[in-house]
Amino acid sequence: MITSHPPHERLVKNLYAQGIQNKAVLEAIRATPRHLFVDKSLSRHAYADHPLPIGYGQTISQPYIVARMTEVLLSQGPLSKVLEIGTGCGYQTAILAQLVNQVYTVERIKDLSLQARDNLNALGITNVQFCHADGQWGWVDYAPYPGIIVTAAPSTIPENLLEQLTIGGCLVIPVGPTYGPQVLSKVIRTRSSYEQYQLDHVSFVPLCKGTS
């Protein structure tokens, strides 16, 4: 059961002060116990606005980045379903699941995918389908998607993800080299092309090929 606690309130106030305006996104952040998605030894840091390690060389994203990417994803209007590339520990997934009807999430590291499934089951979240696969291929079985969010950075945007957007669909993705400047980008598919907007400078783990 998702509930609200004082640390959540402080985090939400901080995000609002940083410019996050979408009330539904802020409410989802408020309602989600971030400490359940990190190791117990790090739980006292769970509501600080910075990323934390989750093992396997991966991180749970900074809350501001989670909120920012989610707000951008929803900027085109309500979404019936979303494809998430990079499930990680499931925190971003939990936020999305409160805001759209169905989430399809892909994770290349099997142990993380299983961990995320357990985390969401513990919260009673049931509108998520999980896939252990190489995220660069997307998840064609349920395509096209009106929204796609990617939580790791490729050097260039994978064509497969662009092709799995609906017309008018929105892709939110960090793009850039592992040890160089990365930019959070928003891509809208039109009937004839793709419109790309560069938003913020960010730092993400790389979007890797293959599975493990």
The sequence of SSEs as H and E is HHEEHEHEHEEHEEE
Mean pLDDT: 95
**Termini separation:** 31 Å
Number of strands: 9
Structural Rg? 16 Å
Q: Assign the CATH topology of one domain.
A: Rossmann fold
Strand content: 25-35%
CATH superfamily of one domain: Vaccinia Virus protein VP39
Q: Determine the number of helices (DSSP H or I, runs of at least 4 residues).
A: 6
CATH architectural designation of one domain: 3-Layer(aba) Sandwich
- Strands of the biggest beta sheet: in what spatial order? 5-4-3-6-7-8-9
Query: CATH first level of one domain: which class?
Result: Alpha Beta
Sequence stretches where pLDDT stays below 50 over 5 or more residues = none
Category by helix and strand content: alpha/beta
- The global form is globular
- Helical content stands at 25-40%
Major sheet, described briefly?
A: 7 strands, mixed
Write a short abstract of this structure.
By secondary structure, this protein is α/β, with parallel strands linked by helices.
How would you characterize the overall build of this protein?
The chain is of the alpha/beta class and 212 residues long. It has a domain at 63-202: Rossmann fold. The protein is built from six helices and nine strands. The protein has helices at 6-17, 23-31, 63-73, 91-97, 110-122, 159-163; strands at 52-55, 58-60, 81-85, 102-107, 128-132, 145-150, 165-175, 182-189, 194-202. The strands form two sheets. A seven-stranded mixed β-sheet has the order 5-4-3-6-7-8-9. The chain has a two-stranded antiparallel sheet with strand order 1-2. β8 (182-189) and β9 (194-202) form a beta hairpin. α1 runs antiparallel to α2 (23-31). The chain starts with 5 loop residues before the first helix and ends in a 10-residue tail after the last strand. The mean pLDDT is 95.
